[in-house]
Amino acid sequence: MKIKSILEAVFMAANEPLNLARLEEILAPTECSRSEIIAGLQDLAADYAESAVELKEVAGGYRFQVRTEYAPWVARLWSEKTPQYSRATLETLAIIAYRQPITRPEIEDIRGVAVSSHIIRNLLDRGWIRINGHREVPGRPALFGTTKDFLDYFNLKSLDQLPVPTEAVTTEHTLSKLENHQ
User: Which domains, ranges and CATH numbers included, belong to the chain?
Assistant: First the structure.
């Protein structure tokens, strides 16, 4: 069998991104090398270059996804609305993404208002942030950072792909750019 065809079938059936190590496990019976898998991925991406779907590398690995320009039509498949996040939630997430590791008091200091426990719990439950440890100060506040799921959701391979903030850019502008990465 052709590696490219196997990869295509695997990606169509997968419900999450697959990294090279996982692909090597899946393709182990065919005894193909990592370089052959990478070549297969490149061939597959080239095959879909002019298609409505693309093979995209995100933090979690590779996945097939609908190209952004077709999202409005595809979204009509689902009767439920995609969740809308409050400005406070998105501001908190953006601060964590850009300033990690960061504590809740530091987030509150940047925002100028208290951060609701509900916001932090929601971001933890979504798997977008995690506790990376505790700051060695009185009270030992949790240090928050983003996760691979955050990168995958926003279609990023690494934090380096976040929009570059400047002092002239408002939080609202930065948030809208972050939302547009989806």
Answer: 3-75 (1.10.10.10), 87-180 (1.10.10.10)
